[in-house]
Automatic annotation (TrEMBL):
Residues 43-110 form the POTRA domain. The keyword Cell division applies. InterPro entries: Cell_div_FtsQ/DivIB_C, FtsQ, POTRA_FtsQ_type. This is Cell division protein FtsQ. The keyword Ligase does not apply. Keywords: Cell cycle, Cell division, Cell inner membrane, Cell membrane, Membrane, Transmembrane, Transmembrane helix. Residues 114-225 form the Cell division protein FtsQ/DivIB C-terminal domain. The gene is ftsQ. It comes from the Bacteria. One of its GO terms (biological process) is cell septum assembly.
Length: 234
């Protein structure tokens, strides 16, 4: 009795295995036929357009698109995830089908704000102080230094966004003693700002530049740490 039951079980499993294999065969055959039919009727992937990628290599994105299948077969969510993992620069990915045969890929990248130097590492950061990539050199970005400098980045962001003539000459910013900023200009002058109300001190410097003959390049140090005083050193 037991032997008979085992025999019948083996026969049943063997039959199920054959049925499954046959089903998979026909499913694959139908899928291939439908794929060929769609492609022959113009629903292939003839063009892939990529926009918004300034720092991400376009070829790295294009290599992820399987052009051998119909455009409707592309899993947009899976392709989005794959592209997202290509580069740390990528913030968002949006993909659209433009039927019958165009795939539109829009890349939204992180915006570089400054170079943050921490010990021997140099990182590109955004305006919130978040690291985008390490060891990536971009010209004309302000350099940020100093312990806990990223926690007090708002002041630097504010003075750079004002787009004054003086802010255009900022080369680097050093956070000193975990409490105040030194601003180094591109002529190597160092502006020592006070801990309290650095905005007023910076605004006053802009006022001096716009209304007087005060020349920053004449001085190596412009010390504003004492209220209502400016001490200069050649």
């Amino acid at each position: 009795m037991i032997i008979t039951a085992l025999f019948l079980t083996l026969v049943l499993y063997s039959s199920l295995d054959k049925i499954t294999n046959r089903f998979n065969y026909y499913f694959t055959w139908c899928n291939d036929r439908l794929s060929s039919l769609l492609i022959s009727n113009g629903f292939s992937i003839d063009k892939v357009t990529v926009t918004g990628n300034k720092f991400t290599n376009e070829q790295d994105i294009l290599s992820l698109v399987d052009r051998t299948q119909p455009i409707m077969y592309i899993s947009l969510s899976k392709l989005t995830d794959n592209i997202q993992s290509v580069s740390k620069w990528i913030k968002y990915v949006r993909i659209y089908r433009i039927l019958p045969s165009i795939l539109q890929i829009d890349i939204d990248e992180h915006t570089p704000f400054a170079l943050w130097k921490d010990d021997n590492r140099t990182s590109v950061i955004d305006s919130e102080g978040k690291v985008i990539v390490d060891d990536y050199q971009i010209d004309n970005l302000v350099i940020i230094k100093g312990q806990n400098s990223l926690s007090s980045l708002k002041f630097i962001k504010d003075i750079l966004e004002r787009k004054t003539q003086l802010s255009d000459h900022i080369s680097s910013c050093v956070y000193v003693g975990n409490r105040r900023w030194n601003i180094i200009l591109d002529d190597s002058s160092t502006v020592k700002l006070p801990e309290d109300n650095p905005y007023s001190a910076w605004d006053y410097l802009n006022h001096l530049q716009n209304t007087t003959d005060f020349t920053f390049s004449n001085w190596s140090i412009i010390d504003m740490r004492v209220a209502d005083k400016i001490l200069v050193k050649k």
